[in-house]
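Give me structure tokens for this 105-residue protein.
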Amino acid sequence: MNGTPRLQLDLRPSRRLAALIVGAHAAAAVCAALALPGVAGGLLATALVGLGVASARSRALLRAAGSVRKIAITPGGLELESADGRQFAAEWSPPTCWTRTGSGG
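Here you go.
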């Protein structure tokens, strides 16, 4: 251990989050089918449900190779590790403040 404070979060698959993602996509599919009747609405609804299942599988259930499995928070930034073992690092950046300027009036 090098003495640097570090918070490591090990992510686990979440069936609840997967159900929420699929449910939200199913609700969008119902809305699309109601708004666009006929074959086009049915195809769009099917595509939305399929997208929900794919998103839930890769994001909530962590089954994709690029799914983040570990997050380490350090004073210098973040360290991420994916399911296939790849590691990524990101540095903290100072906050950016956008203000509206003008001459008044």
